[in-house]
Each structure stands twice: as C-alpha cells, then as structure tokens.
Amino acid sequence: MTAEAVSIDMPEKPPSLPDWVFPPPEGFVAEDLDHIPDLPAHTELLDGSLVFVSPQASFHMRAVSLVEMNLRRLAPKHLRVRREMNVILGPTQRPEPDVSVIRAEAEQDPNQTFYKAGDVLLVVEVVSPESKDRDRDRKPTLYARAGIPYFWRVENAEGQMMVHVYALDQSTRSYTLAGIFHERLKVPVPFDIDIDLTEIDQL
Fold first, then answer.
1. Per the domain annotation, does 12 fall within a domain?
2. Cα–Cα distance measured from residue 113 to residue 64, given in angstroms and rounded to the nearest whole number
3. What is the pLDDT of residues 183-200, one digit of tens each?
4. What is the pLDDT of residues 130-177, one digit of tens each?
5. What is the pLDDT of residues 15-62, one digit of tens each?
6. 5: confidence class by pLDDT, cuts 50, 70, 90
7. Contact yes or no for 162/177 (Cβ under 8 A)
8. Can you give the pTM of this predicted structure?
9. What's the total number of domains in the chain?
10. Pairing between strand 44-46 and 184-187?
11. 179 part of a folded domain
12. CATH number at residue 73
C-alpha cells in the first residue's frame, strides 16, 4: 500500500500591526500624535487613548461647512476660524473639534498641528451617532476644565440643525446652557453672530 501525500492548508500569517495599536501602559500623551507614523487622519486623543473617526455623514459635513463659512464671514480681524484642528487641553487630552475660533496670534507656523486651549475662544462639535457620548458629555467637560469660554453642540433634528450654545462658568469650570437655537442662531459672544441655520438645505 502506498501512502498518498496529504496537502494541508496552513493559515496565512496575519499582517503585522503598527506599533500604535498597542498603547504604552500609561497611555499616549498629546505630543505622541505628531510622531506616530501612518496614524489615520483626524485621530483624537481622549484620556490617553486614541479615538478614530467613522466615515462622515452628509448632515455632519454640511453642518460643519455652514458653521465654518458663517464664522469666517463674521469673525473680527483679531480672530481666526479653523476646521478640524487638534486642541491640546492637557497631557493626555488632544481632541479635534469640528470648528474652532482662535486668537490670530495662535497661528505661528504653517506646519503646526494643534492649538493650545488658552488660545481658543469657541469650539463646535457636530454630533454623530458614533460620537454622541463623547460630543455630549466627555468633550464639553474637558473643554470647560481647560477654560475654553464657549462651546456649541450641533444636533441633527430630523435633518435640520439644532444648536445648543454653552458659556463657561469660571467659578465651577463647567458650562451653563445659554440657549437652544433652531432656525436662526443669533448670539453676541464671542462676537456678534447671526446664522441662518435653514441654509443647510442649500449646501
């Protein structure tokens, strides 16, 4: 009797994983984001952990564009409006707000990748289904503790924008609700702002 050769399919070797998949025991620090190779775009750092973004929905993209466009139109010359730039709030906190209003002098280098919390007057987060807990709870808590004066949270109300506007209570380092706006957002701080929120349908 002759033995027949038996072919055994060996499993393929899994692809090697990048080093940043395995965080250091103490977690990442804010400066690490500038030195990690091949890090996905728009990665945030919250509480020492890397946070990755999901594909952007149409509402989110249009809401961010509407806010950015109008803030740029209305901002005084000593301020700048920035989209999707990291803000360092502390050693292990480096979120990326959808829109920020910063002091002009914070723009120091065309290659810079972040701003410091002390240079930021307003941060805006457009809530996505996958980020709702971070956008409604964790991020505003961190922004307030870092002393950022104003925070806006934009919600999707059946395809229309609903904007919750918050102001910082310096004594408690927490935000208080200043108003909820639906069709028109009109506030006097951090500068005179008047935005027709229904224009999202035209974008």
1. no
2. 19
3. 999 999 999 999 999 999
4. 899 999 999 999 999 999 999 999 999 999 999 999 999 999 999 999
5. 677 877 778 888 999 999 999 988 888 999 999 999 988 888 999 999
6. low
7. no
8. 0.89
9. 1
10. unpaired
11. yes
12. 3.90.1570.10
Cβ-in-10-Å burial (0-12, 13-18, 19+) of 152 comes to buried
Q: Does residue 52 form part of some domain? A: no
Helix (H, G, I), strand (E, B), or coil: what is residue 95? coil
Q: Which two tokens stand for residue 28?
A: 């990442």
Q: Is 188 exposed, middle or buried (0-12, 13-18, 19+ CB in 10 A)?
A: exposed
Torsion of CA 46, 32, 102, 112, to 10 degrees: -160
Which structural domain, as residue segments, surrounds residue 102? 58-202
Rounded Cα–Cα distance for residues 151 and 125 (Å):
8
Q: Which residue has the tokens 């000593």?
A: 78
Identify whether 190 is preceded by a cis peptide bond (ω within 30 of 0). yes
Q: In what order do the strands lie in the sheet with 99-103?
A: 79-83, 99-103, 120-126, 150-157, 160-169, 174-181
By C-alpha distance, which of 183, 182, 196, 154 is closest to 60? 154
Can you tell me the distance from the alpha carbon of 146 to that of 92, in angstroms, rounded to the nearest whole number? 12
